[in-house]
Structures are given as C-alpha cells and as structure tokens.
C-alpha cells in the first residue's frame, strides 16, 4: 500500500530520526540537517550543531539556499513559535561560513583542474 506524500522521505540512508527542513520542506535524516534554537536570554536564533540545546528546534539543510529561504520566509521564527523580533545574526554567520566553504571548494577544484591541464 503506497504511503501518503508526507510519509515518504528523501533520506537515503534511513539511519536516525527523520526531520523536515524549514527552508525547502524536504525530509531528511537529522544528521544531514542543522538544528536552530531560540536563545531567549539573547533574543537570538543560534545554531545547535551538537543537537543538545533545550527547547524547541527548527531544522534546516546546511545549504545556502535552504538557509536563505528559511530566513526570507521567516520560517525559523514561525516553526520555533517565537512572538516578536529576534536577532538572526548567528544564523547569518553560519550562512557566511557556508558561502566561504563553498568558495574555497570551488577554488580548490579549479586549481586542481588547472594543474591537470598543465601536466
């Protein structure tokens, strides 16, 4: 019997709990997603890479597009059930780190390609 669309997963390994990314709305293993929590003391959203912080968490892929979409749609604050304004600086820093990581990978792959062509 085929399952409902919301019961189907995009996870390939099936290990661990399945969570939904608030950016792209795809389901995946929690090991592939980044947990974001609300820090009420600082009134800020903070990443929880160890997945140990208390309280409600929102899950997002470690992908620039998913994080940007989640921030633009205010999906993080909505899924965390936060009323009022919160700082998204920490999440923006994670986004910046992901961009830098991607640029470094692109530079490395371009350098490797150049070296191969020179040989």
Any chance you could write out the topology, listing elements then pairs?
Layout: E1 18-20, E2 27-29, E3 33-39, E4 44-47, E5 57-61, H1 64-72, H2 75-79, H3 89-118
Antiparallel strand pairs: 1-2, 3-4, 3-5
Relevant terms:
119 residues; alpha+beta; 3-stranded antiparallel β-sheet; globular; 37% helix; 3 helices; two-stranded antiparallel sheet; single chain
Overview of this protein structure:
The chain has three helices and five strands. Residues 1-9 have low confidence and may be disordered. 37% of the residues lie in helices and 18% in strands. It has a three-stranded antiparallel β-sheet with strand order 4-3-5. A two-stranded antiparallel sheet has the order 1-2. Strand 3 and strand 4 form a beta hairpin. The protein is globular, with a radius of gyration of 17 Å. By secondary structure, the protein is of the alpha+beta class.
